[in-house]
Amino acid sequence: MAVLRLFLLFLMAPVLVAQAVRVRRETPRLPGADGPIEGALGSGRPLRLTVIGESTVDGVGALTHAEALTGQLAAGLARAYPDREVRWHALGITGASARVVLDELVPRVRAADVVVVVLGVNDTLELHSAARYRRDLLSIVVEVRRRAGDVPVVLAGVPPLASFPSLPRPLRDVLGARSVALDRAARELTRLPGVTHVPLVPGLLRPGMFAADRFHPGPDGYRAWAAALSEGLPIVTDGWHPGEVTRPS
User: Fold this and answer.
1) What is the CA radius of gyration of the chain?
2) Distance from C-alpha of 17 to C-alpha of 23, rounded to nearest angstrom
3) pTM
């Protein structure tokens, strides 16, 4: 079966390359979100949230970070924990793979109470293997904890590229299958204490949830994604150690 799949991919290669070139040429290039990459919501004992990753953390598709994934996630946490001051920090690079994030963004991570890692689209587009993606994510988890402390790390599910309206078939199907494979590899890291994986289910990103480029989420898409992430987001308690996490009641 694996040999057959490789043979079919070989036959489709010219079509896939042509479609990829056309999508790259015709997709509008949207900027990252404007404004500060950190802020605070609410009052009380600090809850430090760091979100690190690719263009969705850079806020592409939203005007400001308040409308993008990190800001929406921070707002959800502030509502769930009204006695905490949610201090958020967004570290994102458009076009970054896991390896780029490890090399260029992880060194900028500061002390935190929970870290969310949002990656996978660019590793999918670059056709990285599941083994490489898992290895790079593991390195990110290890290095993040060296800098932020021994805190919970949440791996956001790899967005299902089969749901992206800007991608034509069969390119959409091939990249969709690859994104599923990378997401499965990320989920394997939940064997580590204190590492959580929150999948992004295909039905979450409907056509109306996308920005003008039909590739990145718009504010509504970010809001829905942040709500899904919030439901699985572990929050540290006093005296927390790896493996002990709580969630909003």
Assistant:
1) 18
2) 10
3) 0.87
